[in-house]
Amino acid sequence: MGKERFDKIIANQFNVSRKEARLAIRKGKASVDGMTLNDPSAIVEVEADIVFDGQALDYKKYIYILMNKPKGVLSASSDKNRKTVVDLVPNEWHRNGLFPVGRLDKDTTGFLIITDDGDFAHRAIAPNKNVFKTYEVLLDGDITDDMIEIFSKGVVLADGTKCNSSILKRLGQNRAEIKISEGKYHQIKRMFGTVSLGVNELKRTAMGDLKLPDNLREGDCILLNDQEIGQIFHKC
């Protein structure tokens, strides 16, 4: 995996600031392969046996957390006044630099990945990467065949913005599934607005081929492995 500065490893992996990491290291609270190391600037193998403040390190360069986002929570890293999705991440998975991959509206629920890997986030949400996001939507009216065709050709929003082709499918009375490959501001609500339909509820259920587990309750999280991450980009 390579080598990094000791204070950077401690800060990133144990969710403390670089300043806190340096102070703790100088006080003898960290060890490498059973030997106390007091030099924060030391270059250390990340696969070494590292212990900080009595806790052994399970090194992960990046972390990928899948959350079933609940209503009323902001898709943001932090906010002074309101609860964010990062606030809901279990303490043992917290680390510096976590952020949500794409934003779900405050009242939208469902599939949301939280990570510290910027390259992954770009691949997952960039429109030209063609990673489709799947949503279930409850509407205040019925889907028609004309609407399905309009969505497949690319909806033009009220302000003239052209959306990419999307896949609209009926699921039942006033319920539909929609797949989009981009994430413009309030995009799905604005898309249905062009066909005079209002969105009452919206839930994201998948990204690429990776689906939200049926047994993952709102507000709960799971860690994703490499195979699951690969499912997101399976058809790209």
Characterise this structure.
The chain has helices at 6-14, 18-26, 118-125, 145-153, 187-193, 226-232, and strands at residues 3-5, 30-32, 35-36, 43-45, 50-52, 55-56, 64-69, 99-100, 109-115, 133-139, 167-172, 175-180, 199-207, 210-211, 221-223. The longest helix has 9 residues, at 6-14. Helices cover 21% and strands 27% of the residues. It is α+β, with helices and mostly antiparallel strands and 236 residues long. It has six helices and 15 strands. α1 (6-14) crosses α2 (18-26).
Give a nutshell description of this structure.
With 236 residues, the chain is of the alpha+beta class.
Question: How are the elements arranged and paired?
Answer:
Blueprint: E1 3-5, H1 6-14, H2 18-26, E2 30-32, E3 35-36, E4 43-45, E5 50-52, E6 55-56, E7 64-69, E8 99-100, E9 109-115, H3 118-125, E10 133-139, H4 145-153, E11 167-172, E12 175-180, H5 187-193, E13 199-207, E14 210-211, E15 221-223, H6 226-232
Helix pairs in contact: 1-2
Number of H/I helices: 6
Sketch the major β-sheet.
Answer: 9 strands, mixed
Uncertain regions: pLDDT < 50 for 5+ in a row?
none
The oligomeric state of the chains shown is single chain
Q: Roughly what is the average pLDDT, rounded to an integer? A: 94
Shape: elongated
Task: Determine the N-to-C terminus distance.
Answer: 27 Å
Helix content: 10-25%
Taking Cα atoms only, what radius of gyration do you get, to the nearest Å?
A: 22 Å
Number of strands: 15
Class based on secondary structure composition and strand pairing: alpha+beta
Question: Helix and strand string, N-terminal first?
Answer: EHHEEEEEEEEHEHEEHEEEH
Approximate strand percentage? 25-35%
